[in-house]
DNA sequence: GCATAACTGGAGTGGCCTATCCAGATATTC
DNA sequence: GAATATCTGGATAGGCCACTCCAGTTATGC
């Protein structure tokens, strides 16, 4: 039987980690998290032997929300508005948490349930893309794999501006959305091969 | 009198640091650099007491090149082609070195000569911007302060793709340039206040 | 070729990191 | 309320970090 106080401690660790990741990013130290939780380092590491487990636990809600945002956008009647809403809201989600911004451009193979949500988002985004292209609104040479590219770009902006200029990502978003419109689109260089980009998102 | 072998050591440190920064980014440890240079840690730190001095020394060439690229673009007769060339070549310079990519979105107040080159680039870019806008090619609501925003975005892409998909930044660049065209430009959110963005680029 | 100023690298310090160990504390069960 | 299974946090180890100290080495000027 798991003891009641152990459950309480586990939850304190998760709460503390959520704050620490938001403040400091994903590389907040386990020591720091233990300190904030008012719990020993041993207790923290007993509950979450690998940092990735803690990350997956802390951000499972947000990851689900990520996939939900994509599905809600796909449910909108207007294909192009749906696509734009998806990009905007995902970027906004990224801006809401330094840690989650990094989660979205990372990969956590040790947490299958977590990655399943990401896969759900990708599948839906794929459909969203095709629908917007079929409607002639999204440029035909856009590929779903451009999304991680944009997430990386947005993460770069967010990590440097979120404290001093928290709205900077909105301007980036606007630039992106305009360049994704099918109207007057100019040719692009070749897209990034999916496999290779995914590889780059594997843990180091 | 500075001894000949001391000069030689200093140069070995600079060369080793250039490689280490390119491989590992700006946070390569001083220990690692000393090891690569085949020199004691004490010698390394005696030559460069602060990491920033070493960074400014290693990247002074590239920083000058950055400003030169901007000036060369400003010297081109066609304002819009000049502007596009500037953005493309600066992004390419960023892609050529993980460390320099970070330098371009950082700030090194302890190295005034270094920052003077950056200021030269900014001044020229400002003129380049106005000229391209006067020609009606660059959208009127673009502000020079959007450049650091794009540099941050590009740095984000580069840091995650340079190994596995080294051409990814080109696609980002193409998207950006299209959204900067004056033709069919849609309204944007407010630009990031200059002061605040600069502040965010100050060392932590 | 010697005296000396200039320079060297290794050893040591203190800090923070992950990770493990274990004697003691505590919730639970009966 | 005693027995026990569960859980705790401090101490500890080993690694890497920036940084300092100093006895010993080496280039240089005469």
Q: Measured on Cα atoms, how large is the radius of gyration of chain A?
A: 19 Å
Which secondary-structure class do the elements of chain A indicate? mainly alpha
**What is the largest interface, and how many residues per chain?**
A-B, 41 and 41 residues
Secondary-structure element sequence of chain A? Answer: HHHHHHHHHHH
**Count of alpha/pi helices of chain A:** 11
- Mean pLDDT score of chain A, rounded? 92
Strand portion of chain A: under 5%
Q: Into how many domains do the coordinates of chain A divide? A: 2
Low-confidence runs of at least 5 consecutive residues of chain A: none
Say how many strands of chain A there are: 0
Oligomer: homodimer
What is the rounded distance between the termini of chain A?
37 Å
Helix content of chain A: 55-70%
Remind me, CATH topology of the largest domain in chain A?
Tetracycline Repressor, domain 2
What's the level 1 CATH class of the largest domain in chain A?
Mainly Alpha
Shape of chain A: elongated
* Major sheet details of chain A: none
Secondary-structure arrangement, i.e. CATH architecture of the largest domain in chain A: Orthogonal Bundle
Organism (chains A, B): Kineosporia mesophila
Domain HTH tetR-type (chains A, B): 7-66
Pfam family, one (chains A, B): TetR_N
InterPro entries (chains A, B): Homeodomain-like_sf (IPR009057), HTH-type_TetR-like_transc_reg (IPR050109), HTH_TetR (IPR001647), Tet_transcr_reg_TetR-rel_C_sf (IPR036271)
